[in-house]
Design goal:
The complex is a heterodimer of chains A (about 130) and B (about 150).
Chain A (H helix, E strand, L loop, with lengths): L1 H19 L4 E11 L9 E14 L7 E4 H13 L3 E10 L3 E13 L17
Antiparallel strand pairs in A: 1-4, 2-5, 4-5
Chain B lengths: L1 H8 L1 H5 L2 H17 L2 E4 L4 E5 L9 E14 L2 E2 L6 H6 L2 E3 L23 E13 L3 E13 L1
Helix pairs in contact in B: 1-3
Classes of the chains: A alpha+beta (about 130), B alpha+beta (about 150).
């Protein structure tokens, strides 16, 4: 009898608890490429994708010290963990009050493939 | 509050005089607060690319972008300031105004289309927080390349 009487209240409370457990993910920035180690690509260099990357950083004001760039940290730890020189197609999200999420693609610097104009054509074999 | 918490935690603080407890609590607060960190979006990101073209470009000098939102009686207009809008509103900043002064910075919304990437990106929070009115700004600075 008690359950039937309060079933709507129980349902609403359960729903509220479940919904409050969902993590809010708010996009703060999209960038085509970022790096903490390289300023630009030199002549003869190109990027090679290594795969999707994702990382999270949560601000901890009791353990962190000094001035901290949240995006700097996220990019740095992701580059270190993935041994990536650049991160491309990067999206930054805010998750919750103090946490941030990075999603993107890892890239390493490789030697660029020569342009078609730079390829020396092979001499055609003579027909006998 | 800390002195009250201390007096509840251990009897030694109950026996101390109120003044001494407050002094001790203040010292403790200072020690705890000196460990605190300050957070900003970007402190010194080496490169952010807007176009995806990362070949070495030509420097167009220091740039500065800003986005501000207002808050009246706790109600936020346009939500929080956005880095995207700050970068979109980036303006060229002459060399002698790198300290954040806004004397003759000329908005060049059209020219921003040529901006390929930015080096040494730094963001700063600015504004004021009054009882009725508050202004929150995010300022993006860096060296632009085309």
């Amino acid at each position: 009898v008690t359950f039937a009487r309060y079933r709507y209240s129980i349902f609403v409370t359960t729903l509220a608890v479940l919904l409050s457990g969902c993590e809010m993910k708010q996009k703060i920035l999209d960038l085509n490429a970022v790096s903490m180690t390289s300023e630009n690509l030199k002549d003869g260099e190109a990027l090679k994708e290594t795969g999707p990357v994702s990382n999270r950083f949560c601000a901890d004001s009791f353990h962190d010290q000094g001035q901290i760039g949240i995006l700097d940290r996220l990019i740095q730890i992701t580059q270190e963990e993935e041994s990536a020189d650049y991160l491309t197609k990067v999206s930054f999200y805010r998750t919750g009050k103090t946490c941030f999420l990075l999603e993107g693609i890892g890239n390493t610097i490789v030697a660029a493939a020569p342009k078609p104009s730079e390829v020396i054509p092979r001499p055609k074999a003579k027909k006998h | 509050l800390i002195s009250y918490a201390l007096s509840r935690m251990h009897p030694i603080f109950k026996n101390l005089k109120r003044k001494s407890t407050v002094l001790f609590a203040s010292a403790l607060s200072i020690i705890v607060c000196t460990r605190c960190a300050t957070y900003t979006y970007a402190d010194s990101i080496k490169t952010i690319s807007l176009s995806g073209d990362l070949r070495k470009g030509i420097s167009i000098g220091n740039i500065r972008g800003e986005d501000c939102t207002w808050q009246i009686l706790g109600y936020k207009f346009d939500g929080d300031p956005s880095i995207v809008r700050a970068i979109s509103s980036a303006v060229f900043q002459p060399e002698n105004e790198t300290d954040g002064e806004e004397k003759t910075a000329t908005p060049v919304v059209a020219k921003i289309k040529i901006l390929r990437y930015i080096n040494r990106v730094h963001t700063q929070s600015r504004g004021f927080d009054g009882a009725v009115l508050a202004k929150n700004c995010i300022v993006v600075t860096g060296e632009g390349y085309k």
